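Q: Two folds, back to back.
A: First:
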Amino acid sequence: MAGPSRARVVLAFVYVALIVGLLVLDVDPEQGRAWLLESGAWGLLAYVVAFTLLQPVGMASHLFVVTAALVWSPWVALMASWVGALGAGTVAFGFARYVGREWVQRRMPPKLRGWDERLAAR
């Protein structure tokens, strides 16, 4: 069995650094909630941008959804989470389509490769 990939090691390091940073800075969840609410539309935009950019690189989407539910009203939280999830899906698709295509094709099973070739021919 091969060791962890470089990307997983980097991602684990980022998570540990984030957690240590939050503990060292003594971040209070109520301060974060107050900041998001006081920022108005900018706080909502910051939430959607964070969801869009961080979820495709491994941060769990349920953390964003639960955070939104704790900060905003149910309808605002639903819409913000929906837009963030759509953005995250778009970013992930764009990355896979244009940046990671060769990497995926090298690892594609033969049966799936046949389907891919037929789709590419159309």
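A: Second:
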Amino acid sequence: MEYPIQDGLKATQAASVSGTKGPGSDMFAVIAIMGGVLLVAAGGIAFALWSRHRFTH
């Protein structure tokens, strides 16, 4: 049985392995996201330490 919706479909290259320079392939964005993750992690660690010392006294 032939499905008409699949006629004319071709394999395309995934964007993650594409070597072309696009709007999402900026190294500054990767560094900015990593910095944001580290900032949130540092805030979470600081809050955990603060709350541990706050509730023990």
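Q: And?
A: The two ends are 73 Å apart (CA to CA).
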